[in-house]
Specification:
Blueprint: H1 4-7, H2 21-30, E1 39-46, E2 58-62, E3 73-76, H3 82-88, E4 92-94, H4 96-103, E5 111-114, H5 116-122, H6 126-129, H7 147-157, E6 158-162, E7 168-175, H8 180-200, E8 208-215, E9 221-222
Parallel strand pairs: 3-4, 3-5
Antiparallel strand pairs: 1-7, 1-8, 2-6, 8-9
Helix pairs in contact: 3-7
Length: 229
Amino acid sequence: MTSKRYKKLPAETSKLQANSIDKILPEIKKNCTTKFDESIDLSFQINHKQKKNEINLRTMVNLPSGSGKKVKVAVVCEEDKINEAKEAGADIFGADDFIEKIKNGDLNFDKLICTSSMMIKLSKLGKILGPKGLMPNPKLGTVTNNVKKAVEDAKAGQVEIKNDKDGNIGLSIGKKSFADEKLIKNYNAVLDVLEKEKSNNTIKGDLIKSIFITSTMGVSYKIKLSKNI
């Protein structure tokens, strides 16, 4: 059943002519009529099917304005790095004892960081961590000996970019309460990472087919891509 609030929103906005993000953001915010601070979300359709292979992107972007979300970060590390994890702002940390808790199903965290040597032990818990998307990965910076930087990045607004089997990427660039300038900075940071990924994967033609933007409970608008990605 469609709510009265939703019925008041503009209809078929996705069919409107694409416009620049700075022109669309005021409209997106105008449609944020709920009582909570809605997320501002992007939806990309990428050219993931190439002649020789299929592109599967998986990387991280550090949002310069933060994500607006509180992330509960856990660290598996050696005993002598526990203080480093704690001082960096990790919410949960430990060595073999923590691995045992994870083994028993204690997954009370949003992101898991692990040092290289401890990853050998943690890798045995793939069936527990994998389905939840919590398994640390060197490519994503979550398997590292620089625990301090990894924790600080995760807390500051680091977001994963990953396409599904149909070439769709979805992620949030902040909240309605963010100033437009901050949201645009985060948006540009995402484009910069995708541009780098295009070069790394030697993708022919445009990587991005389309971009839509919406809020958590709003309607979507098509963004005019200003960069040749």
